[in-house]
Amino acid sequence: MKAFKKLILPMLLIATVLFSGCSQVDDLLSKQQSKFIDEVMTSFKEKGFESTVVEYFGATPQEVKEELDLSPTDLELYDTILKEMNYKIEKVVIDGNTSKVLVDITTVDTKKAITETFKNIDEYSEDLKNVSSSEDDFRKILVKQLKEKSPSYIDQKIEFTFVKEDKSWVLQWFNDENFLKLLGGLSEK
Known about the structure:
Layout: H1 2-47, H2 49-57, H3 61-67, H4 72-83, E1 86-95, E2 98-108, H5 110-119, H6 134-148, E3 153-165, E4 168-171, H7 176-182
Antiparallel strand pairs: 1-2, 2-3, 3-4
């Protein structure tokens, strides 16, 4: 029995050290990724959509406009919505070579703002005289309404995904659902 205790105690000690080491690595990784996502979210809020995508996702300004098919009015609308956003990093979940940072956001309820803009379109009839396309017109009016009136807000959850490539963790671009949530609750879920 003494031999068994002598054998088991060192094994338990080694296992404890190994597992606590993994926990410390995961904790450090969680803190680093949380800090990075905090920087990304702050950048969206303070610097705007285009600047953040260029800085953190490695796109050029031209790629942002062309690949996402964005007009200057689209970018102004996105920036208006993002300036109103508040967020809290909920947790980091690490699973092998993938990590997800879950973020609670409160953002403009864009669906409700669109509905309100349609209801009050007569208030903006003067604005319609100086714009070119109906879709762009509506976005300009929506931006004006969001700036002039106190919008409603919606709470949602989004996630950022990191994938380990070689020895580095690389932030992946949003899926469409998260992208739309970030822009004011346009997601169906």
